[in-house]
């Protein structure tokens, strides 16, 4: 079957044919319909630190998975062939410790399965498994609730969901996004104000800032811009290092929290908002064979919304 493999840092993804998986005990095989692409897929090509998260190479990347169960293993009783499912990537660190979604069929533990609502497409479900999970998980880390002033850095695949769900929770949302082409979408999602840099909201008394970009300077700017006693939640990993102003951090009694992934409940919440029509994340669809080109688009910053590869009809 078709697959893309990661074979090492600073090396291109390789298009290969590998053996089809079979469903082991407590597992299922999914015919992958949609597989998301993420900035971390750029990161693994550029930064050796990502190798610490991988058991062995080569590995099939892709941690955003949606499809249909085609085989069930021994002891599986709660799921059946034909079920439409998304995959919680945190269960087995899919795409890193085990093969991910950039293949025609994937073996997955039943602990990771989430039913896809009828009104949610495979492309939307794939985006919900990471972009949704990570975005909403960061809101939980930040303690976002009604009445709070929330800054969101980045209105891409993650930030568009985080900003909208924060608004749905009753927060007042301020979006920092360098790409002015998406400012209207940010306003449509409910943003009170939009600017190129979070620094422009330094006088807004933001209770919390969530950095969905993570390009070093964004983290530093967030710590300066958040109000005294406020909290910055770091999600984005555009760069794996940042230089921060500890003077502002200490004297302002500010907090800096890391947030990685999220829970199955975060994915369920995301898909519930999508099914209701309250959340309409922008998704750019590409073909399976275009995955490396899609990763390059992510690196170039030219992607609108979340990038999802169509694996099969």
TrEMBL record:
Xref: SUPFAM superfamilies: GroES-like, NAD(P)-binding Rossmann-fold domains
Recorded superkingdom: Bacteria
GO molecular function: alcohol dehydrogenase (NAD+) activity; zinc ion binding
Cofactors demanded by this protein: Zn(2+)
UniProt keyword list: Metal-binding, Oxidoreductase, Zinc
Entry keyword annotation includes Oxidoreductase: yes
Domain Enoyl reductase (ER): 8-309
UniProt family annotation: Belongs to the zinc-containing alcohol dehydrogenase family.
Protein name per its UniProtKB record: alcohol dehydrogenase
Originating organism: Agrococcus pavilionensis RW1
């Amino acid at each position: 079957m078709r697959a893309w493999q990661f074979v090492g840092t600073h090396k291109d993804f390789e298009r290969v044919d590998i053996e089809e998986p079979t469903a082991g005990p407590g597992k299922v095989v999914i015919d992958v319909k949609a597989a998301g692409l993420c900035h971390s897929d750029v990161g693994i090509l550029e930064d050796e630190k990502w190798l610490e998260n991988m058991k062995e190479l080569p590995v099939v990347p892709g941690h955003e998975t949606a499809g249909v169960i085609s085989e069930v293993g021994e002891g599986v009783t709660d799921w059946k062939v034909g079920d439409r499912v998304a995959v919680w990537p945190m269960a087995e660190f899919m795409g890193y410790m085990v093969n991910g979604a950039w293949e025609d069929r994937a073996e997955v533990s039943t602990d990771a399965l989430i039913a896809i609502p009828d009104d949610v497409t495979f492309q939307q479900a794939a985006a919900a498994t990471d972009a949704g999970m990570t975005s909403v998980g960061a809101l939980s880390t930040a303690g976002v609730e009604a009445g709070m002033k929330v800054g969101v850095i980045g209105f891409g695949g993650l930030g568009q969901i985080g900003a909208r769900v924060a608004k749905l929770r009753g927060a007042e949302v301020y979006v920092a996004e360098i790409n002015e082409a998406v400012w209207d979408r940010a306003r449509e999602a409910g943003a009170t104000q939009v600017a190129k840099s979070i620094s422009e909201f330094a006088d807004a008394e933001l209770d919390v800032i969530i950095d969905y970009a993570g390009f070093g300077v964004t983290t530093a700017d967030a710590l300066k811009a958040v109000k005294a006693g406020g909290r910055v939640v770091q999600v984005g990993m555009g760069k794996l290092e940042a230089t921060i102003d500890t003077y502002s951090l200490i004297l302002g009694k500010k907090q800096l929290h890391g947030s990685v992934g999220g829970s199955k409940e975060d994915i369920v919440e995301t898909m519930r908002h999508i099914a209701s029509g309250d959340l309409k994340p922008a998704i750019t669809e590409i073909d399976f064979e275009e995955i490396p080109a899609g990763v390059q688009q992510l690196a170039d910053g030219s992607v609108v919304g979340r990038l999802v590869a169509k694996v099969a009809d």
